[in-house]
Write a structure and sequence with these properties.
It is a single chain. With 104 residues, this protein is mainly beta. The chain has one helix and seven strands. Strand 4 and strand 5 form a beta hairpin. It is globular. 10% of the residues are buried.
Length: 104
């Protein structure tokens, strides 16, 4: 179900992660990825939520859904920024633009 959500497919495509499930239905990658040694968490209860924790800094980011039906976030973005994914930094409340597709 999680890997079939539009938000997951947009960023991760057909990538399948080995995950463990917590009792509150959060799926977290077992292995850390990339230069920042990150672990991804996925939760789908009504609405998909994807977050990442960079273990070097212990900072958590939440992926913003650009297909949000309310369009509150992306409706005013210039086309130039449409090829990025938007990650909300929960610590300093900033938004980081990253490539739209996952790179291992």
């Amino acid at each position: 179900q999680i890997s079939q959500s539009p938000l997951y497919k947009k960023v991760f495509g057909d990538k399948n992660f080995e995950v463990s499930r917590s009792k509150d239905m959060v799926y977290t990658t077992i292995k850390a990825f990339g230069r920042n040694n990150v672990k991804y968490s996925f939760k789908h209860i009504g609405k998909m939520k994807i977050s990442v924790v960079e273990h070097a800094t212990d900072v958590e980011y939440s992926l913003l859904d650009t297909n949000d039906p309310d369009g509150r976030f992306t409706s005013n973005l210039p086309v130039l920024l449409s090829n990025y994914s938007y990650w909300y930094n929960l610590s300093d409340k900033s938004i980081e633009l990253r490539g739209i597709h996952y790179n291992s």
